[in-house]
Queue: 2 jobs
Job 1
Amino acid sequence: MGEDLYRLLSPRFELPPTQYVGRVTQVRIGNASPEGTRAYVILLGGAKNLPFFDDPSKTGVRPSLAMQVQARPDNIPTTVSTALGDLMNDPVEWARFCIKECGAEAVQLKFNVKAKMDGDGTLEGIKGLSRRLVEELDVPLIFSGPDSKELEPPVLEAVASATRGERVLLASARLDNDYERIAKAAITNGHVVLASSDCDPPSQKMLNDRLLDIGLSKDQLVIDPTTAALGYGLEYSLSITEQIRLNALKGDRSLQMPVAAFPASSWTAREANLEGLCGDLYSRGLIWELTTAIAMFLAGAELLVMLHPEAVRRFRLLMGEAGFSEPPTVKKE
Amino acid sequence: MPQKPSLLSLYGYLPKKNCGECEYPTCMAFAAKILEGKAKVEDCPHITEENRVKVEGLIAAPVAKLTFGTRKPLVIGEARVMHRHELKFYNPTAIAVELNDKQCEADTEAAVERALGVKVERLGEAFGMDSIAISSSTEEAEPFAKVTGRIAKTTDLPLILCCRKAETLKAGLEACGDETPLIFTATRDTLDQYIELAKSHRAPLVVADEDLGQLRLMVKKASDRGLDVALHPLASSLREVLEDCITVRRAAIEYGIREFGHPIIGVPASLVKNRGLNDSWWRESLVASALVLRYADAVILKDARIESMLPIITLRHGLFSDPRVPAKVKPGLHRLGSPKPESPVLLTVNYALTFYLVSGDIDKAGLDCYLLVADTGGMSVLNALVGGQLQPKGVAELIKETNLKSTVSHRRLIIPGLAARLRGEIEELSDWEVLVGPVESREIPLYLKNAYR
């Protein structure tokens, strides 16, 4: 009898969320008029705790989703190229498809130029393509250079001036590239910089400090600790993302920026792209990218850059069913 | 927040004889080693039983250990930290597949064989199903008992009995005989009956409720009766269950609330809407992965196809690895594709990331070759060169140990570009022709096509 009374009277069990001294800076990608021409902007960051560790009323927003588009597609796995078909021939059409048909909030354009830059791989060509994307799409944009320390800075510098005023995300400044050049281009043209480190918190901190010293403000930085593919070190990415986030919340101002993750990189795993490994290749590829996405979300990533249209579609579907609301965007009035 | 056990408080329970019989010079040193997890309190021949129990209590994990299964005991629980980087995660999340008594009545043995057939290899270790859950579809005792009995005969794997009524559970428990299953799950209404049955069969019990306050009371009741308990927070969405798992685990680790210091059992399918759709295996897989990431000590899956199990097991393997120790693969000769005697041989190191990057690049290009994996204690090529773990002598010995000359018809070894300076000495010591390959593994396919011939 006493116990039944206790049951009736006991309040819902709750723990107070940990009160941290720090919080993640809110970073805006995209500029609406008059500075830019985006129809809406995306807001990353603002967290005061790890996902789901906070007061239940504050949790429940899914990460912002961007999709990767490549100029001169390189190394696209069969599963993905089959889904995209002719779209791969035109980055702008590919990007438009990502927004209209897949529901991505933003698009990342990756320039795969080689050392010998020719045709549209010249800096003029890159500027031209960047401008075309800005003119034909009114969504927040991310630009990344080729996988080359030498080429990244001039490419990003060219993009920065061609997209002046649109507050794009320039990917990436690294300790071992000419990050100063990239930072200055971002400052001059009003963009945001992706600071990428190699799964190493001290390097991330050092890079962020140097970028802030050069003159970028805290709300012009996004952290990329590197998303290793599932089975190829993803647990490092997860642990490091958590570590960086916890240090930020405990007061480390150099790390108080939102995190971007790249489930698109999961396609490098043999499990995602090798025919004949086990089971069905198509399903394996999709679940590989999806698992990477949900894992980085749980670790704290606010922006996910994905590749396969069906993976994006299913991720959004599951997030909706799972009780998460859309991430904040600010629309033009 | 409960403090970590202090060295002095632990020392307080030791005999303080400094006799050295525990193989440490002083009791203080012994106490320090116990705290590090490197010594066991049982090693002390002079400690009183009372004090031994006190020490065990002091160093016990905030989340209890739970064992089920008699022939192949499965241990879950014993979590100590909220985040892997703070220490490590213990006892990888157990994965069970659910077999429904009505659905597999006709061909029970075949259903079990199918479940046992799921195999995933990671870094030279094989993984598969950890347990079989048997569920009752209609709460009829007879088919449940029959199928349970058959399953218990077909496999040694630990079992989980899933039913809602005491009569059904009783029949299932009896059919298990000496094999101790995990009971899934008592609810508010069935708690008293389930506790009695669990006690009489000495089986661990899962308790379930959607209210964490109720759950706490249920756990207290069951564990006061001497039972091993696990928790199953009932929720209607992935978001809710994640919040519940985090609250439960924080309560145990950060607040020391004993009733929440028990393993958590998750059932991904119950959180997935649109379950009816044929193509929903991926939803269950993702929810399972989310539960593995956020404190589930066991998950029960309805669909155990390889496309679902592969990512869950791969994720679990990485998550439960010790972040303080570099991941290693087994050294020796590895085959990629279907190599023939003429196929090239490439040298690499046993650091898991290096191995997977190199083999991944070769696999992607569809090439057949041999990878000669040197034991560098898990160091990457660069670190092993600087630290001395990669030596020409070791490479020459490895060629001998693996009997490489009987496997390939040529005598050419390709070494990583970064190890170029070792070329001459390896040639001298091994009598093999040593070629210097590219620095970046992604250039290996191009190298093999153009430069190697």
Job 2
Amino acid sequence: MTRIETTETAETTASTDTGNQLPSRLDPDRDLIEYYFEKGFTDGLPVVPPTPQKIDDMVAALGGSPELVECRIPPRWGNLSRQVLAINMVMAGCLPAYAPVVRASLLALSDPHFNLNGVQATTHVACPLVIVNGPVRREIGMNAGHNLFGSGNRANATIGRAIRLVLLNVGGAWPGDLDKSTFGHPGKYTYCIAENEEASPWAPYHVEKGYDGGDSTIMAIAAEAPHSITNHVADDPQGILDSIVSCMSTFAHNNAVSGGHCAVIIGPEHAATISKHNWTRHDVKSYLWYQARNTFGDIAFQHRYGKVYNRNLPKWYSRELDSEIPVVPSIDHIHLFCAGGESGRFSLFLPGWGHMTSPILRALDGSPPKSGDQICVDGMCLL
Amino acid sequence: MHSNHSLILQGRQLNGERKPMPYHTVYDPRGTVNAVPKPLSGRVIGFSGIKLGILDNTKWNGNKLLRKIVAELEAAYQFEAVNYYRKESFSMTAADELISEIVNNNDIVITAIGD
């Protein structure tokens, strides 16, 4: 008996969502800022109307070849050509000098290990954060100090904004449509900072991962908004780090229930106190990993709502109710930076999205570390 | 950097490389999409005697929702088989091998999120 009828379906409909690569002409009396609002091409703020000259300059800074497709941006899977990238960068207010950082960031985000398709569409709050290391920070005038996550610096603000405009326009992650985030967070306007290497007592992040200090890199991680950590009292590493441990050791964030990566940003004053006692980056990360714990009973709600196994966490965790569960699976799942203003005894914890994504570290020119070391942040070392 | 950049732009305008146009040039920032049209599968006209595939996306409540659906369907229909599958991760697309297995061994498939 045949139970499946031949389909009558589906007039095959070609996508009409093809975008229009060609510039078009508009009445000179039209308000261009309002035009881009009406077209739905903005992040909710006014954009800089692109001009042919600005686009040409930006394409040149990206390396020419305007039709060259750098990558595709999910979930719409739009083709990010250099021309389209230049349009979005101009709209965001970028200078051409920012082009290598924006380009490297989008190539990192389109690495399959990052799972941008999931990050863009998730109901969770996480979104891509880009942290810049190396000489390019100073060359383009990035803010790694006071209020680095806040307003006031063109490079931080417009690099992050250009990335967001690409995620919206090319990736199609419009709120409520393909972006299903329940809340989102303010970093979905712009979320790009630099490490304060000059104020850090430790080697920069990218040097820890095998690059030379003279290399310029970007690290992309799917992250919640920063959570502030206050400690004005402790004069030793344990005291400061115990405050960070307290912030990490909650079962309310995704790392606790889904593993994966997180970022910790130590403020320069806290870093100075910690390093005065000769604690290295590795010591700090090890302490945080060793101390930041929940019990499995916390994560499983004491089985109050039914027996919980939680297959999102590593299979080698003990699952007795009183078993200690680390907030992240290993010390290398904690990405440690020193950044912020040189006054103020604060640090930050940024929970990640979970095991579903891996951070990506990338040199601006795509070259591997000169040390020849494998970059583990993309998850390959766990295979 | 700001002033240099500004001077360069002004110089270009003064040199007449780009003359003022009697219209605005506007751009589409979306980029093209390479869309491959796919027809829908054949529609099912009866449930009895067919093979039912269940794809659990592993969200917290996905399997609870799916098992209730299966229970209600099994009370109403006699399936030849009910095959249960799980994605590796709820936030990633199902592996090609898993999709092939589902396609090859089932007449219909039900999936759910269960967030």
